[in-house]
Amino acid sequence: MEKMEQIQLENVTFNVPEVLSCISKYQEHVRDIVNSNYVDFLSISNRDMLDDLKSLETDIKELIASTSQLTVDKSNVAWNDLRNYQRDLEEGIRGYKIARKLLSIHDLFESLNLSGNGYEKTAHILAKIKTMLDELDDPVLEELHFFQGLNLRHETEYDKLLNDLDVTFNKLVQLQQRSFQNTKSVTISIHKDENLLYQVVVTQLKTQHNFESVCQFLLENVFAPVIVKPVSLICDEKSNEQSVLIQLSYQLSVGEDLRPGYKTVLSNVMQIFYNLSNMNIVVSDDECLFKVLARQMKKRLCTLLMEQCLDRDIPDTIEGMKESSMVKDVCEFNAFLKTTNFVDGENDDLLEEYANSIETIHQKKLCDNVLDTAVQIMKHESHEMVLIEDHEYQFVGSTSARLSSCMVTRTVVDLKKFLDKVLAEAFANGLAADRFIQTIATILERYMVDVPMANEKLLFKIPQQSALFRNDCTYLNYWLQKNDDKLKDHSSFATISEALKACGEDIFQHQLNTQRTQMMQALNGFKLSIHLVELGTEQQRAVRQCVRQFELLKNVWQTVLPESVYKQSLSGLVDQFLREIMKRIQNLEDITTAIGNGLVLLIDIITETLPNLFKEPSEIHQLVKQWTKLLQLRQILCGSLVEITELWAEGKGPLTMCFSAEEIKHMVRALFQNTKQRQACIASIV
């Protein structure tokens, strides 16, 4: 056994140097090749070397097997020799592997120049070279000064391949556009050389080519114009045996009214896709050029189609929707895109989902049109008044009271008729009923905002306009109450009803406050003081100005407002007027005969004119709380001490209805001098 191992050791002693010598020779040869091709750039090649390397590799493997089987005593000198041989062999093997990898890479580079290499094979070789360059089996590879040259050559060859692919693809699929002053012309020519186009496209897909420029051209210069503009489109597959031609031209600027209908758009887009399919190279069962393009542009194309074409053409009338075939047409178009393999896996049902929502969009458009029409009605500056009979204008909550006619604007009558029509449509079209009714709510809400804003100056400055607006709001509220059985399921109308009443009342109350302020300003001229000897024209002018104000209000309110509202509003103003007049008279400490006579004349003016503010003058006694007191004040101003005493009648006479004992005593002191008779009169007033 020892003799056998001695023989094997002698073989190793002989073979290892021989193998290392062979490796060194091959390394030297590889170094020459590398230096020539990647450092000095001389043309040297040796195709036989790889075959020789295979033989050398066999010898190395056998030698490694021999050394690994040796069992030498570690104390023996031969052990040290064996370890040295093994280390030398390991170093040699490392150098051999590096040399072999470099030679393999070089051989692949050389194979790129072989004739007959197609784009696919070239791409495959470059991919293999890239893999070998990236697999750094030995860190020393990166430190080799020429290794960067290998990477640089790969980048150069790869860029050359990509450029060749682009140039060839652009020759096979020519995308051209020319702009003129007012028009634009677009031409797409697709060569019928399917084999070459297949090679180019397949290789481009394998090299992960970005077709964004193609997508951008198609979107901007073809599909976008076809969707929004009338175009002249020519698609020709037969005239030229070598290519398919797609030509379109269109105006750069086109009016909205000239936009094509959706049927024309879908037809043109389908025709374009049909002819573009000549470049739709099928790579495998799962991949083709159209799918690549779809992943980059389908969502944008569908969005453009929906927003710029389909949305606009969805009918906005019930009749139009009944006659429309848009849902069916869009579904068929979506199926066509799937058939042509223009799919991306994410947006393939986008158009079908849109088709299913067309009815909803139609309802929204319909209701938007309803709202727009209602707003236009509201904006009409109608100064025409319409008489509304009592049965058309029933005040909720006061049905037992006597009803009366009033005036509303022609605008609100038109709006009410329009609401009737909308409500009828709502119940005639069950699917859209809720949306229609919600639109009615929106119309009434808009009315309370838009009309006051648009007519702010008129409503706040002109009494008749504020009265009409109050009536209009009540009229619309009456309409809500009348249709309560149809609207009761929608709780928002209860709130709207209250808001309508409040809106009209607020505007009218603001007008009443304005009239009160105006009246009080006029009464600034009605000044009474102890220094006054007799009444002048100033006091009379103040009273007449207020009377004139009431008469003007009568002219613009009596035939406009419901009778009860008119009576309540005007009687309230008159009552405040009388209260202010009498307060100032009663505050006088001394009333001379001349002043007393003047005050009686003013009261006579009031009592002669103000009853005429009402259809039944006698009603003023019930409507104006201060009226009786005014008449009694006149009696006091005209009466003697005896008459005043009799009217008081020890607290049982008519004066007790409106005056307190202190008020009567004050008036007696102001009207009469201090005599025994005055004292007796005052004493009797308790």
UniProtKB/TrEMBL annotation:
Keyword Plastid tagged: no
One GO biological process term: cell division
Superkingdom of origin organism: Eukaryota
Keyword annotations from UniProtKB, A to Z: Cell cycle, Cell division, Centromere, Chromosome, Cytoplasm, Kinetochore, Meiosis, Mitosis, Nucleus
Domain Centromere/kinetochore protein zw10 C-terminal residues, every copy: 404-520
Subcellular location: Chromosome, Centromere, Kinetochore; Cytoplasm; Nucleus
Family: Belongs to the ZW10 family.
The protein, known as: Centromere/kinetochore protein zw10
Species classification: Eukaryota, Metazoa, Ecdysozoa, Arthropoda, Hexapoda
